[in-house]
Specification:
- The protein has a four-stranded antiparallel beta sheet with strand order 1-2-3-4. The protein has a two-stranded antiparallel sheet with strand order 5-6.
- The radius of gyration is 28 Å and the shape is elongated.
- It has two domains: 90 residues, no CATH class; 98 residues.
- The two termini are 51 Å apart.
- By secondary structure, it is α+β, with helices and mostly antiparallel strands.
């Protein structure tokens, strides 16, 4: 996960065609010397009408006898340019970075790290927030969510029930653990869920105060 997202606001222009360059995932190795690029992303000119790309086919054919061409590229945060050899026109077009999605992923990651840190003191602070943040985040680490579920009964806060009941868990084992915790919470608070409207009512109630149905 990226710590510095400043490259998301960068705009680079190809000096060969004056078109905006695309932000792409970097290949795992430098095609030339086997070394890394020093960045997980690269700015690459994917304009098929770029003079560098158009002329590169013949140049490489004449010089190396290979069917390939060049794409102009730059590393984020650096004005230094380079030419990257590509075997076809579609190379890197499937690796274009979705800037908004990357921002969202990093935001979720930071939220998970913050909630995981707060989880350590949530019982002492009687703080339900980090527990809920992790349980309702399907992208959070499984072991951390499992730990969070284990704190539900100890925190003894009925406010957790509605959000958890309305959440769709992809992990059925975790969902079962959460449901068992909810059952225990209701029991120790002498409460139950109305079978008709699912509102929380007193365990001994004969009629639901919300939907007025007989129980």
């Amino acid at each position: 996960m990226f710590q510095d997202l400043s490259f998301l606001d960068e705009v680079k222009i190809c000096p060969h065609c004056q078109q905006t360059m695309s932000l792409c995932e970097a290949p795992p190795i430098h095609v030339g010397d086997g070394l890394g690029w020093g960045s997980d992303v690269l700015f690459i000119c994917l304009n098929d009408s770029c003079p560098l790309f158009l002329k590169g086919w013949q140049q490489i054919e004449n010089q190396y006898g290979h069917h390939a061409s060049y794409r102009y590229m730059e590393v984020p945060g650096s004005p230094e340019g380079n030419c990257m050899m590509v075997g076809n026109a579609d190379a890197f077009k499937a690796c274009i970075v979705d800037r908004e999605e990357l921002k969202n992923q990093n935001a979720r990651y930071r939220q998970e790290k913050e909630a995981t840190q707060k989880l350590k003191s949530c019982i002492a602070d009687h703080n339900l927030e980090p527990v809920m943040a992790l349980l309702l985040n399907e992208g959070a680490t499984r072991s951390v969510r499992d730990t969070a579920a284990g704190y539900l009964v100890e925190l003894n806060d009925l406010a957790c029930i509605d959000p958890l009941r309305n959440h769709t868990f992809r992990d059925t084992a975790l969902e079962q653990k959460v449901n068992m915790a909810i059952t225990e919470l209701l029991k120790i608070n002498f409460k139950k869920e109305c079978p008709h409207c699912l509102e929380i009512i007193k365990a001994q109630a004969k009629k639901c105060m919300h939907c007025k149905e007989d129980l």
